[in-house]
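Here is the promised in-class demo. Please do not try to memorize the tokens; focus on the logic of going from shape to residues.
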């Protein structure tokens, strides 16, 4: 069993041994070679090494719950991306199969209407050149649905 002993504050600041102080200039207290080796090890340590070191800190039950949660989340994200791809495929093919022919039909209808207007203007111009009575100002030729 461990025995706990209270240490008075005076002994902490007075030093452990006779004549020893906290600040010492002796070469034994500071080894620069050991310090640089530690710094080199820290510099060479990667993030992966640190994460692997955490394996011992996290209990196995918590790690297994984290893995299960990660796998479920990953599968839901994969499913969501797959469904989004399917929806994008359906929308794009529907737009091509329905929208493209509709746009072409509207363009063709507009072109035919424009040609009819040009023919009407041409016939009015010919009648005016021949000196006939001016053509009645009616609606003219209207395409169906207008």
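The designed amino acids, position by position:
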């Amino acid at each position: 069993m461990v025995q706990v002993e209270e240490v008075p504050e005076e002994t902490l600041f007075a030093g452990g041994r006779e004549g020893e102080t906290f600040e010492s200039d002796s070469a034994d207290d500071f080894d620069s070679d050991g310090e640089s080796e530690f710094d080199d090890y820290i510099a060479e340590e990667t993030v992966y090494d640190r994460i692997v070191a955490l394996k011992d800190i996290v209990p196995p039950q918590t790690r297994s719950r984290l893995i299960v949660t990660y796998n479920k989340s990953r599968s839901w994200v994969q499913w969501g991306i797959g469904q989004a791809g399917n929806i994008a495929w359906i929308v794009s093919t529907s737009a091509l199969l329905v929208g493209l022919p509709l746009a072409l039909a509207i363009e063709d209808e507009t072109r035919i209407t424009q040609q009819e207007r040009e023919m009407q203007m041409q016939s009015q111009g010919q009648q005016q050149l021949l000196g006939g009575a001016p053509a009645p100002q009616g609606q003219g030729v209207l395409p169906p649905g207008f």
